Structure formats: structure tokens, C-alpha cells
Amino acid sequence: MNDARRRVVVVTGAGTGIGRATARAFSADGAYVLAVGRRGAPLIDTAAGHPLITPLTVDVTATDAPRQVVDAALDRHGRLDVLVNNAGIAGAGPLAELDEAQAHAQFATNLLAPARLAHAALGALTASRGVIVNVTTAVGQRAWPGSSMYAAGKAALDSLTRSWAVELAPLGIRVVAVAPGAIDTPIGVHQGLSPEQRAALRHWQLDHTPLGRIGDPEDVAWAIRRLCDPAAGFITGVVLPVDGGAVIG
């Protein structure tokens, strides 16, 4: 593919799981990918064997992160076509044990960081008539006792997706979201759950997933990639569950 025709994609939280699979999916499709994350080593692993992927170690909650990410894409490739807001953190705990610091950290990463990054990327995405993809969660569409702050932040990102879709349509920017269900990622480890807790959670998830299996990161990456395809140019504002039927089951 001629370099001038390659799309340029930013994927946050690209060091593991859904972010890694998404970065590699776009790369396999011939796009330049800026793989963003807090830890350098996992990003290097994401890019290994994928020469179109460039790692960028940035904490998306940092004050200068949005400008740093957008500038890196423009400086390296001269354009930005797709922004995938995938970085996220999960926390658990009932209302009776509310941890304000944990709640603030979740909202900073899961809600405010995507808004700040989308704001910084508006000029570049207007020029390319690009796409914003927000990675939310199926639990934002149903009750999630014990993780209510996480679910609330992701539900708010669903709402932003719909509002931005209408607001940015005159600029030619599409805004979509995918809402993963139970996916085989390290989020339970990052959340600090013990092996026993992770096993119990997986058992519960399987019981509540009609298709009867845990999803793969590639299942979500496929949906993201397809929603960003030019052939999907009449789709905006959608929040697509990728959850094996969990929301409707």
C-alpha cells in the first residue's frame, strides 16, 4: 500500500488484551498504529513483528498526554484517522466501602481521559473525516453490584458516544462504541483479584453468557475494525455489545 493511503490509528491501552489485539488488527489491515500505554515493555511486545506499530509510553491521565499523543501521530505520519479510546481500569467494592481515591482514578482513566484525548484530536479527525471508538463495557448497560463506580463511568462513556456522534456529525467525524462482555484479558490481575476470585468471576460470567464461552480480545478487535471501515460510513452513535448475549440473556 502507498504510504500516503495508509490510515493512521491511535489505540490507547495497547499493551495487553483488547488494545493489543486491536493495534495488531489495524496493522494487519495496513494501517500505521500508535500504540499508547503506561508501561513500555508490554507495548514493545505488542509491536514485535508488526513494523507498522509504534509504541508510545504515555499515561493517558497526565495533563499533557492528549497533546503528546496527537502530536506524535501527526509528527510521525502527518494525519490521524481513527482514535480508539480503549485504556481503562476496573475497581470493585460495594457502596458501603466506597473508596474515593479508587473512584477518582477510574473516572480519570475511563471517562475524562477519552474526552480530553478526543478534544485534542478534533482538528486532525476533522481533516481526515475520521472515527472515534470508545471501548465501554456490557456491564454499563445493566446492574453491576459491587463494581458500581466502574459500571457508572463506562455507562457515561456510552452517553458521550451518542452525544458526540450527533455533535460531530457536521464535521464528518463518526463516533461509535463497543461494549465488551466477559473477555479473556488480564483485567482481573490488574484489579488485584486472587486466583480464586478470578475463577469465581469467570464461573459467574460463563453462567450469564448465553453463547457459553469467554470472548477473546480478537472478537472485540474485529468489531472495532469493522466499525471503522469506510464501508461502515453510515453508522454512528451505536454502542455495539460484544458479549456473547450477556446483556440480553
Notable traits:
8 helices, alpha/beta, Ketoreductase, 249 residues, Rossmann fold, 7-stranded parallel β-sheet, 7 strands, 45% helix
The gist of it:
This protein is an alpha/beta fold. Helices cover 45% and strands 14% of the residues.
- CATH-assigned homologous superfamily: NAD(P)-binding Rossmann-like Domain
Which outline best applies? globular
Mean pLDDT score = 92
Q: For this structure, what is the CATH class?
A: Alpha Beta
Extended strand count: 7
Q: Whole-Å distance between the termini?
A: 43 Å
Strand order across the largest sheet: 3-2-1-4-5-6-7
**Class from secondary-structure proportions:** alpha/beta
Kindly describe this structure.
The protein has 249 residues and is α/β, with parallel strands linked by helices. It has one domain: Rossmann fold (3-Layer(aba) Sandwich), CATH 3.40.50.720. The chain is 45% helix and 14% strand. The protein is built from eight helices and seven strands, in the order E-H-E-H-E-H-E-H-E-H-E-H-H-H-E. Strands 3-2-1-4-5-6-7 form a seven-stranded parallel β-sheet, with helices on both faces. Helix 1 packs across helix 8. The longest helix is centred in the middle third of the chain and has 29 residues. The protein is globular, with a radius of gyration of 17 Å. The termini are far apart. The model has no long low-confidence stretch (mean pLDDT 92).
